[in-house]
Amino acid sequence: MPEGSGEVMKLIKISPDLELTVHEFPSGGYAEENRFLRELIGNHCDIYEHIMPSRLYTVLHMKNRPTKVPGQCISMLIDEEGLLKENEPNPVGSYLYETDRHGHPIMGNILFVGEEWGSDGIDFCGIEDSVFENLKLQLDHMIEVMKVAKEAFGL
After folding, report:
1. What is d(CA 69, CA 72) in angstroms, rounded to the nearest whole number?
2. What is the DSSP string of 50-110?
3. What is the DSSP letter of 46?
4. Cα separations (Å) of 83 from 39, 41, 78, 108?
5. Among candidates 153, 137, 135, which has minimal Cα distance to 71?
6. What is the pLDDT of residues 81-91, one digit of tens each?
7. How far apart are the C-alpha atoms of 39 and 30, rounded to whole Å?
8. Which residues pair with 78 in a beta bridge?
């Protein structure tokens, strides 16, 4: 977050039923951040997996490497054990992950977070404002198209 800005950085959560919600990225230490992110993923998530799905960069044109500005690089967090639990496939996550090419779906809730250079390497953070607005707009459109398709096919 820019020094002295007082702005709250955000993250995006999308559920398997295509509900997009916006949340404040947690402030505090690593333990608090980790607990918050796992709770947001839900369904007793013990370990989240950091993934960089190809279409997030090729189709949505997000940055895939941290820059000097925190939160310009975007990645996705999922439940590492999502396939072992009673989760529904996440259409947005699965599309971005190219499940149609390899057959391995993303299950359960997904989070979109920013990345930044920290003292020990790359850390998660909220999404930078202009990147957030662009990403949210594209995800809203993607969700609308997916809902129309589901309705058209009676799914």
Report:
1. 6
2. EE--HHHHHTS--BSS--SSTT-EEEEEEETTGGGSS--B-HHHHHHTTHHHH----BS-E
3. S
4. 17, 14, 10, 9
5. 135
6. 988 898 999 99
7. 14
8. 49
Q: For position 82, what pLDDT does the model report?
A: 86
How is the chain split among helix, strand and coil, in percent rounded to 5?
A: 35, 25, 40
Q: 123: part of which helix (H) or strand (E)?
A: strand 121-125
105, pLDDT greater than 50: yes
Residues in the chain: 155
How far apart CA 88 and CA 129 sit, in angstroms, is 30
**pTM, 2 dp:** 0.91
Decide: residue 34, CB within 10 A, 0-12 exposed, 13-18 middle, 19+ buried: middle
* Cβ-based neighbour number of residue 141 at 10 Å: 10
- Tokens 């589901």: give the residue: 150
Is the separation of the CB atoms in 128 and 114 below 8 Å?
yes
Judge whether residue 12 has pLDDT over 50: yes
